[in-house]
Amino acid sequence: MSMRPGSFTEIPEATRKVATAAFPKGGMCMRLRDALGTIFSDDDFADLFPGDGRPAESPARVALALVLQYAEGLSDRQAADAVRGRLDWKYALGLELEDAGFDFSVIKVNFSHAHCTPCPVRARCTKSATASRKLTLRPREQHEALACARAVQQGEDRQRRYQIRAGVEGTISQAVRGHGRRRSRYIGLAKTHLQSVLTATAINLVRLDAWLTGTPLGPTRTSHFIGLRQVIIA
To answer: What does the domain layout of the chain look like in residue ranges?
Structure first.
C-alpha cells in the first residue's frame, strides 16, 4: 500500500452543523478537535509507506481514531463503528456525514505470519515454532532482584518513599481502571509498546478535556478495609 499525503484540517460544513446541533455543549472528541486540531498529519507517517501501490487509509486519521479508541476504552470493532456512526467522532476526524469509515481490521495492529516467523528477535517472544510464549521462570538475576525489591518494600520508610510515587500510582490506576491497561490487547513487545503509547496519549487528552471543562480532580480512593478501620477508630 502507498500513502497519498492529504489533510483533514477542515471539518466538512455539514458535519459541523449537524454535530453542533446534536451536541450544543460539545463533547470530549469535539472539544479536543477544537482545541488541538488534527493532532497528527499524514506527513508524520510518510516514511512508513512505499511510493507506489493502492492508496491506504489516511494514517493520521487512523492514529487519531486509535487515540480516541483508547480514551474511551473501546474494542477495535467498537472504534470502527464509532468512526462510521458517531457524529462527535466524524467531527474530530473531519469526515463527511456519509463517510462509511473503515473496517475494524485497519485499527488492529497485526504482524503477519510471513513477517513473524523469520523475525531475528522472535526468540525473545517465544521458543515455539507456531504458538505464543507461555509463563516461564525468570533468570536467577531477575528473580533475586525482584525478591530484594519486595524485601525493601517491607521496610519502615516505605510510606515516606511511597508518597513520592503517589502521582505515578494515580496515573497507573487511571490507565488500568479507565483505559483497560491491566492486560495487553496484543502479543509482542512492539505492539504492547504501541498500546502503552496510545494509552498514555489518551490519558493526556482525557485530562486536557477535564481541564477545559473545569472538572475537579476526583478524591483519593479509600479501600473498603481502610474505610472500615476509620469507622472502628472513630
So the answer is: 1-111+158-234
